[in-house]
Amino acid sequence: MSKIRFFALGGLGENGKNMYVVEVDQAYFILDAGIKYPSAELYGVDEIIPDYRVLIRVKDKIRGIFLTHAHEDHIAALPHLLKDLNVPVYATNFTMQIVMDMLKDEGFILDNLTLNTISQNSIIKFGNVRVTFFNTTHSIPESVGIAVHTIDGVIVYTSDFTFDQSSDIKYQTDFRKINELSEKNVLALLTESLGSTLELNGGVSTNLNHRLNSIYANADGRIIVTLFSSDLRKIQRIIDISLAHKKKIAIIGRRAQRIVDIAIHSGYLSIPEESLINLRYIDEKNKNDANNIVALVTGNRHEPFFMLQRMCKKADRLIHISESDTVILMTPPVPGTEKMAARTLDVLFRSDAQVKVIDKRLLTSAHATAEEIKMMMNLLKPQYIIPTIGEYRHQYGVKRLAMEIGYKPEQVFLLDNGDVLTFDEKDVYVAKADINVGEILIDGTAVGDVNDFVMKDRELLAEDGALLLVAHVSPKTKQILGEVNIVTKGFVYVQESEELLNKVKETFLEVSKKHLEGKYINWNDYKRDVRNEVNRFIYQETRRSPITIPVIISTEPNA
Question: For residues 467 and 534, is the Cβ–Cβ distance under 8 A?
Fold first, then answer.
């Protein structure tokens, strides 16, 4: 019997940051390595990655990082990981192209890395463990599920999937492969959870086509469509409908959105060359307002909304939205962008354009809904189920679904990041919070230099501002020279708060008396006491806590 352990460094109890580890007899297999985007209160943070440092001490035992598909919440932490863990990476051709582009961007020399392109027929052997793959359907081509075969059974990780039937081979689920796995002993199923609370809504694809076709038929002028650049299936659908209506297609943000560019270059998005146009900058002669243009506004998270606002305000260089335009919004707000999405709608309606918001139910996310998750469980018949990829309520939804089809509560494990599930000599047990997990906040380029203290300071700056107190003190004569200056940023408006700031100066002078009496000035204590007293006084007067920075400069009086 092997000793098998499973734990997550990210992706459980949250949306994003997916990174799971299967350990078989001390050989580590990492499944995905994604980022999460910050919510609004994380000021200045660009992205959040799992704290992978716990893996550094076992890096010689890591057999590889296996990637399921090219979405950022599954691959974008790779550049950070590979700096510390130069281990082999396995991914399908399209995913690998996106990864290589990302790594080049980060300054990696690809020859120094081990990047292996796999297909669903690859079988990779590591001692008595084999890793195999099976094609799944998702909103991006060449998505795969991963199976880790051990002598005690198979651990299957579905990643994001749906059973939506597609005619395009690049998006088809391989049911034959899934059936082959079910004939083996499936020990555990790591299924995605995000859609577990959604009912299956049949015929959505047809309804969406119908809705889009009727909008196209009734549009007199240009059509502007917002799309997430990672949702290549929807981009292809809009392209197909646009071609059917004999439109010319302009993709805006294509250069910025490398994923779209790579997809076009490598034939994952098929657009006839003659139907693709490049818009020129707007000037007196050129308005880019021909009736047959469909402009695809692509981007991540908030970018489509931001670009639409610019177009409405006539600040964009390619498109100015006017009343003859039809704007189709196919980008439901993602967590953290709700405010911006609401503001964008407001700006759009002011522009008098025809605004068509596609109902969220028609834009079914590319995640397995309740019936599809049950179908995956029934196909694979695992002994145990571990809901992954989703917040706790989604994981709980999977547990409910499993019990509907006959699983017992003790066969479904609702884990948190850092919990370790061990399969040992026919016994299965969970060690809560066994592994120290956390988040690394990425701010600009430096990694891990933003900790809780920095975030606390940013929160205070955003809420209560800062106050700088500048004074010149002579250590010789023990006197304050010249004026005490106070500079505030985001705290109070200086002209209207003279009285308060004068009292702050008085507080400073009071504290200074005590420190200037002795033989020597202890500068550190002096600054600390000034900060504490000023903070206490300001809080009493205003109930606010700005960041107070005393700048006390040692100066000699002019002789």
Answer: yes
Q: pLDDT tens-digit profile of 335-374?
A: 778 888 999 999 999 998 999 999 887 777 678 989 999 9
For residues 44 and 41, what is the distance between their CA atoms, to the nearest angstrom? Answer: 9
Rounded to the nearest 5 degrees, what angle is found at the Cα of 104, between the Cα atoms of 106 and 87?
Answer: 80
Helix, strand, or coil (residue 481): strand
Tokens representing residue 153 in the block: 């059974």
Query: Of 319, 327, 309, which is closest to residue 226 (Cα–Cα)?
Result: 327
For 245: left if phi > 0, alpha if psi spans -120 to 50, otherwise beta; the answer is: alpha
How many Å apart are CA 66 and CA 99, to the nearest integer? 12
**Cα-to-chain-centroid distance, residue 536:** 40
Distance CA 416, CA 40 (A): 23
Residue, of 454 and 15, whose pLDDT is higher: 15
Structure tokens, 406: 């006959």
24's enclosing H/E stretch is strand 19-24
Residue type for 546, please?
Answer: P
Could you tell me if 248 and 294 are in contact, meaning their C-beta atoms sit under 8 angstroms apart? Answer: yes
Residue by residue, DSSP assigns 222-274 as: -EEEEEETT-HHHHHHHHHHHHHTT-EEEEETTTT-HHHHHHHHTTSS---GG
Give the distance, in angstroms, between the CA of residue 524 and the centroid of all CA atoms in the same chain.
42
Sheet strand arrangement including 115-117: 115-117, 89-91, 62-66, 27-31, 19-24, 4-10, 420-424, 427-431
Instruction: Look up the pTM and report it.
Output: 0.83
Phi, psi (5° rounding) for residue 511?
-65, -40
Q: Are 228 and 298 in contact (CB under 8 A)?
A: yes
CA distances to 70, 86, 99, 103, 200 from 111, rounded to whole Å, are: 21, 12, 14, 11, 46
User: What domains does the chain contain, in order, with CATH numbers?
Assistant: 4-199+365-450 (3.60.15.10), 204-357 (3.40.50.10710), 464-554 (3.10.20.580)
Q: What is the DSSP letter of 72?
A: H
CB atoms within 10 A of CB 366: 24
pLDDT of 276 higher than 70: yes
Write out the E strands in 335-478. 354-357, 384-388, 420-424, 427-431, 439-443, 446-450, 466-474
